[in-house]
Amino acid sequence: MEERPDGILLRPVESAPPRLSWTATAREMAKAQEDWSDWESTASDGLEYAPWETKAQKHVAEPKSRYRARTKRAPNKK
Asked: For residue 25, which of 16, 31, 43, 78 sits 20 to 30 Å off, Cα-Cα?
């Protein structure tokens, strides 16, 4: 998939450019020297105070069944 000014171009998988490794991706990002200073304003959004660790839920989404599940028994070998 390639985004162009006139729309999105879908190409077959075999004609896609090769993917970069993580190392090559990091190298290309460093070479681009993009300005990310606009994102610094999000540093004071209070995200560090969000409760990330939650207590485990003590129930499941489905109600408890009225019957007991039975385990499968191996057939008797004679």
From this structure: 43
